[in-house]
Structures are given as C-alpha cells and as structure tokens.
C-alpha cells in the first residue's frame, strides 16, 4: 500500500440504494444534493461521490441534465473533488450510466470491478408501506438482478472516460475476485497507479462485513499492487463507522454518507451527510490521524484538477 500521512474522507451523499420512505433526510432534488455536498465538504470531506435522483419521486436517474443542475453549484461553492458514479442504479444500461460522466468529464468516477448479485430485497421486511410505488419494486427487483460489469464494459469505461477525458477512478471492489480483476487491467496497462481501491463490505452478494475480511482484502491487495495503491473502505449500514475506524488505523482512507448508511448511531437517523462526515472526522482526529484537504487528495491520487472538468 502507498504510504500516506493523511486520511482522505469521501462522502457519498445520496446513492441509489436507499429510498425516500427510509429517511426524510435523503437528498433528492438537485438543490438538496448540492446543499448536502457543500455541507459535507465544509465538514471535512475531500471527495464528494454523486448520483442523481428524479426530483419528483426520488427514483435514481442517469439523466445528465439533472446532474448538471447540481454539479456546477458544488464546484462553485467548494474545492472538493467531485466523483460521479458509473454504477448508476439498478436496471440502467452501461450507456445510460456513462451519459453524465461523459458530459461532465470529472476528475474522478467510481468503477465497479465485476458483475455481481446486489440484493436489497431484505429491506422490504422493514417497511410495511412506501411513499412511492417504485420503491417496493426497486427493492424486490434486486432479488433477480445482476449488476453487470463485464470485462468488456470495464474496458469501454476505461477507454471512453479514462483515456479520452483523463478521469481517474475509485475502483469499487465488493469481493476478493474484484481485486484480481483490477490486477488483470493493471497487467494490461489499461489502468495506471496510484490505484484508489475502495473495498466494500456488507452488501448482499459481496463480501460480508467481518473484520477478518478487512484484513484479507488488505493482504491480497498488498500482494497484487505492492505500493501502487491507496486504500479506502466503506461498509454498509451499522458497520459504516466501526469498519472505517478499524481500517483507518491500518492506513486506509474512509467513505461515509447517506448512500452507505442512513444512520448516525444506533437507532438515530443522520439528519445530514455533514453529520456523518463530522463524526468520522472526529474519530480520525481522536486517533491522531490528520485529514487530507482536497488539494492534498488530488496530489495523493494524481488527479487532473478541477480546472479540467466539463462543468
């Protein structure tokens, strides 16, 4: 793992997993997403990871026009690195998922490193009624859904977005095989160090949220990438803060936000993304870890700079 002196905090402000019924605090409209992102940056997040939602009902959308309603505002109000999803949401084609990134040409995008089951349907048991009809269907459809990220898909994204526009990637690795997939692209020189590797725990269909798995993913990544990678970690739901804290003591960067967990603590909904960022920042600083600024994150990850984006 690449040696670093400071911790990068990423905040994923809305995502495509949680639905409006689950929390009244989920950012939905472009204005809410912009406000949430600015607040997270002010609280200490160096990277803001973004999805878009239909402002009428909160359904995930790949529409570039919706993204363009909040991207410029965030850029004008913060110096945070803006990271746009290429995962999109359930049922979107690869072309739909790339529509906004190709228009925006951001410094960074997420990139899932393999096809996988992505089960959200257990959350159906927690909510007897839903505010919008699409929510129940969204969760139920995940029972028979494969999140597609074939080798061809990944090659396409690396070429059309990475090579063509200088965008670098948050490589999302939900299981050990995803690390080997990334090593395959490194061997072919289709990706270049330093690799920003996001190891993800607790999604049904990926590796479980078990501390032994954190150690294992770190060990395998070290074997595959040596000192050419920067580690980051996220964990779903109640595992968010404990796993981030654990991994940070081993040199990892951290990701929080309402995409990954809607809670601030046991039984307490997070009212803002900024509250989660402030809490993990406080934990990091209590552990005597320093927080990276956006400019320091750009240097650490070899990003092209905010002056070379398309918004």
UniProtKB/TrEMBL annotation:
The keyword Nucleotide-binding does not apply. One of its GO terms (molecular function) is 3-keto-5-aminohexanoate cleavage activity. Its cofactor is Zn(2+). It holds the Pfam family BKACE. InterPro entries: Aldolase_TIM, BKACE. Gene3D superfamilies: Aldolase class I. It comes from the Bacteria. Keywords: Metal-binding, Transferase, Zinc. This is 3-keto-5-aminohexanoate cleavage protein.
């Amino acid at each position: 793992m690449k040696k670093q002196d400071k911790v990068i905090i990423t905040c994923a402000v809305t995502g495509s997993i949680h639905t409006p019924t689950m929390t009244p605090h989920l950012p939905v409209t472009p204005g809410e997403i912009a406000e949430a992102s600015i607040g997270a940056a002010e609280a200490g997040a160096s990277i803001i990871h973004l999805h878009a939602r239909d402002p009428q009902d909160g359904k995930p959308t790949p529409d570039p026009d919706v993204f363009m309603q909040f991207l410029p505002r965030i850029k004008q109000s913060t110096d945070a690195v803006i990271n746009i999803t290429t995962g999109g949401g359930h049922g979107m084609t690869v072309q739909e998922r790339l529509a906004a990134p190709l228009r925006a040409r951001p410094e960074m995008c997420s990139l899932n490193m393999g096809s996988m089951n992505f089960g959200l349907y257990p959350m159906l048991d927690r909510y007897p009624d839903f505010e919008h009809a699409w929510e129940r269907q969204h969760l139920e459809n995940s029972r028979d859904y494969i999140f597609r990220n074939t080798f061809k898909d990944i090659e396409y994204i690396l070429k059309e977005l990475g090579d063509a526009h200088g965008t670098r990637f948050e490589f999302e690795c939900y299981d050990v095989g995803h690390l080997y997939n990334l090593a395959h692209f490194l061997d072919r020189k289709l990706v270049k160090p330093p690799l920003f590797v996001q190891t993800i725990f607790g999604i049904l269909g990926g590796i479980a949220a078990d501390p032994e798995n954190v150690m294992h993913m770190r060990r395998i990544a070290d074997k595959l990438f040596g000192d050419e990678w920067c580690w980051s970690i996220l964990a779903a739901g109640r595992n968010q803060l404990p796993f981030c804290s654990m991994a940070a003591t081993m040199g990892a960067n951290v990701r929080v936000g309402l995409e990954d967990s809607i809670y601030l603590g046991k039984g307490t909904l997070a009212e803002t993304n900024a509250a989660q960022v402030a809490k993990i920042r406080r934990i990091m600083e209590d552990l005597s870890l320093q927080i990276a600024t956006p400019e320091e994150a750009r240097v650490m990850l070899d990003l092209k700079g905010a002056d070379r984006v398309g918004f």
